[in-house]
# Entry
Amino acid sequence: MDAREAARLLKGVRAAALAGDRPPAAPRPEIAESWRRMMAGGVHPDRDSRSRMLSAAETEERRQTSPLRDLLPVLREGLLPALDEALHIMVVADADGRLLWREGHSSILRNADRLGFGVGAHWDEAVVGTNGVGTALVARRPVQVFSAEHFVSSHHDWTCAGAPVRDPRDGQLLGVLDVSGPLATMHPATLTWVSSVARLAERELRVRHLESLERLRAVAAPLLARMPGRALALDANGWTAAVTGLAPTERIPLPKTFGPGRVWVPQLGDCLVEPLPGGWLVTVTEARTGAGAAARVVLDLSRPGAWRATVYGAAGSWSQELSPRHAELLFLLAESPRGRSAAELAQELFGDPTRTVTVRAEISRIRRNLGGVLAHRPYRFAHDVEVELIRPENPAALLPHSTAPAVIGARLGRTGTDVIP
# Structure
């Protein structure tokens, strides 16, 4: 059917549905379901309602913490080469329906801006009505919305196709990949194309998950080999990397309060949990009495370019090489037992307390490997963790790459109060 003819038919279908009359054709089931939600929720069919746009800082913070951030190269490679940028927009939204990334020709982007389809906008179905982003989030499946299938009339000149992206580790909905454009760009194959790229992104996540389990297995295997009892190495979602003394199992359901120390795991019983890079060492104990040995962390900054954190626990020890930025942050935390807020760390690192987004993102990456050792609110080493800081013999050799005001002050023998206002 010609796109304009289809648009006229769908406007008649929508008008009949709003009036409670018999439509000239039945709307597609996913569209009919969405329209029922819109009418029940009081969304106005002819009034373009918009929520507050995220600020640049809020958008950047969501970008930094979004699991979709690392998938952008896969999404771009799958869509952009075949995408007519003068006619289409590629959009990536998070699980709340907030648009975080958008790419396309400047002319089509300006048209989208007039529609409120910009970075930081909220395209949840309950806010802007039936659309390829919000409806895909609600339906949990790929959705194509053409012309008057959009519940709000101001969107009738557009067509969009959105597919959800899920985390294969736990099934959590991460967001939506969407391709949108004017009516003339409508094609039945667009939805299959967008869905295929979303599945490709999920496959990439699955490969990265298997690689992370392999890294965890490499760290845990020497520890498990020395343990006489029952123990497992699990990642943060309970997937098993290695096991000793137990029948192999693919995944262990973890309680919500799972963390370092004594934890009751329904499938295993009473356990002692210790942090490992990228996961946990879980030792099944025979009784629920007693406490696990407190962890000890040695932060070795004595050799330029070879910074390392070594964690000692009841089952043994493991080491983690540190990037320059992570070495800086751990040094600052080791120097401040009371902890630091994100603003204080930003001041110490950059001389600018407003750069909290960068600090939070880097701390989040550190906690993936040192989650049981670091606490937050404020950021600090956990109270039951003994911290040993090994500095270079020559104070001038302390993190020589660093331009952080606090590190420069430490090289000169100043205290934190000498450096931080």
In short: The first helix runs from residue 3 to 19. The first strand starts at residue 89 and ends at 94. The chain has 13 helices and 16 strands.
